[in-house]
Backbone:
C-alpha cells in the first residue's frame, strides 16, 4: 500500500505542480500570470491577477503531495481549484472531457480528497514528523471536501462580478 500511495502522490502531485508552473511562470507552454489573469478576467473574477496567482500556488501545492507534507492542506488547495473550475468552466459542457466537461476535474477532485482521507503513507514527511495518523482519516477527507466547497462557494459569489444582462432581454423589450 505504501508504494502505491507514493506512486499516486508523486504522479498526481507533479502533474498538479506542472499546471501551477504554467500559470505562475509560463513554463511548459503556459500563459504565465498575465495570460492566466486574462482568463480569470473573462470569467468575471473581481481580482483576476490575484485569482491567477492563488490558483497557481494552489496547484503548486502538488509538490507538498509529492513529499507528503501537510497533506490535507495540499488536498484542500487542489480541491478548491477543481470545484471552482467545474462551476465556472466545465459544468455547462456536461460530463465528458472530450466536450469540455467536468470529467477530468471530478477525477482530480476525487484523488485529492482520497489522499486527504487515506493519508500520505509510510514514505512521507508527515510520517517522518510523526503526525500522519493525526491528519488523515475519513473525517479529514470529509472536512477537506466541506472546507473546499465552502471556499469555492465564497470565491464564486463574493469574488465575481455579476453577469451582464443578456442581449435577449433587450430584444424582447424592443419587440
Residues:
Amino acid at each position: 500500500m505504501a508504494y502505491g500511495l507514493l506512486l499516486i502522490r508523486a504522479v498526481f502531485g507533479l502533474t498538479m505542480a506542472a499546471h501551477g508552473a504554467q500559470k505562475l511562470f509560463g513554463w511548459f507552454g503556459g500563459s504565465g500570470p498575465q495570460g492566466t489573469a486574462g482568463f480569470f478576467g473573462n470569467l468575471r473574477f473581481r481580482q483576476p491577477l490575484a485569482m491567477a496567482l492563488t490558483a497557481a500556488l494552489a496547484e503548486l501545492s502538488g509538490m507538498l503531495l509529492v513529499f507528503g507534507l501537510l497533506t490535507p492542506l495540499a488536498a484542500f488547495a487542489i480541491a478548491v481549484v477543481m470545484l471552482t473550475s467545474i462551476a465556472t468552466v466545465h459544468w455547462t459542457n456536461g460530463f465528458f472531457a472530450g466536450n469540455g466537461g467536468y470529467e477530468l476535474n471530478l477525477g482530480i477532485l476525487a484523488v485529492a480528497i482520497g489522499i486527504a482521507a487515506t493519508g500520505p503513507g509510510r514514505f512521507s514527511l508527515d510520517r517522518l514528523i510523526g503526525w500522519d495518523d493525526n491528519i488523515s482519516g475519513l473525517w479529514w477527507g470529509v472536512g477537506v471536501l466541506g472546507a473546499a466547497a465552502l471556499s469555492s462557494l465564497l470565491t464564486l459569489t463574493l469574488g465575481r462580478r455579476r453577469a451582464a444582462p443578456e442581449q435577449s432581454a433587450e430584444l424582447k423589450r424592443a419587440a
Summary: The two ends are 67 Å apart (CA to CA). Residues 126 and 132 are 5 Å apart (CA to CA).
